[in-house]
Amino acid sequence: MAKFKQALKALILPASILVLWYFTSEAGILNSYIVPPPQKVFQTAVTLIKKGALAKHVWASLYRVFLGFFWAFILAFPSAVLVGMVRPL
Prior knowledge:
This protein folds into two domains: about 1-50, no CATH class; about 55-89. It has three helices and no strands. The chain has helices at about 1-25, 40-50, 55-85.
């Protein structure tokens, strides 16, 4: 019973965000071009999964993220070593 309550508590915030997103998009508060309604996001996700394109797009995004971290490390690590080696004035 305690695990059920814990799981229910964990779902309150995501469910609240989803409900708020739904009602604000239905009311026209959110621009549907910038923030599409949750139904459209779900439909698009299902379509991409059926076509097998979702994995391709996720891989492309992850590649860009890891490439960015790689180049950040390549540039930042030598800079940090240099700063650590230089004596303060």
